[in-house]
Amino acid sequence: MAVPKQSEDSQLEESAVSAPAAKKRKNVNADIMTKAAIGTLNGHVGPVTSVCFNADQESQIFSGGWDHSVRTWDVASGVNVMTNLCDKVILDIDYSAHSRLIATGHADRSVRLWDPRSDDSTVVKMRLSSHKGFVSSVAWAPNSAYMLASASHDSTIKVWDIRSRTPLYTVYAASDKDKGKKLLGLDWHKSLLLAGGESGSLRIHSVNSQYSDDQEQTSA
Question: What predicted TM-score, i.e. pTM, was given to this entire model?
């Protein structure tokens, strides 16, 4: 999106106001401790867009990138122990300790599910399609093996039960400011979904408790 050009007067005013602050920040930053990375993992061919830990094994992490790969790493040895491939760019990744599956969001408007325990590096367990834009972020429900949410450049959030290929429901933007604006980040905490995007707003949505695993077990 192009940024409107400022007048020379406004640019000068901003420079005059921000210069002392910038100088102060420079002096403060000089006293801040810095640390080097304790390790670097190399293997992706191109930008790495997303990373997450395996909640079941602290020594294992997952990553996704523009090279169309989901990679599994052993942190201790620094070895790329598994590479899963698809034909689209990966924009986000999340792992569920309940289902033990990886969910990824893609530029082809799809969500893919992977089983990191599988020896077949090309098998996608399931593909979920309903969004009309890039799937920029995915988030597993914290207390469910089946519930998954996805956010998209189409400005919607979709809540899925992965036992079906059809979303349970779609959450649309409520305010005019958010309508039509791309969503870029998503998180699921207890019964709340939190999303943010190019509008500059944070959208909070409540997920009905009827979709939790605990509720299903109680009903049964």
Answer: 0.79
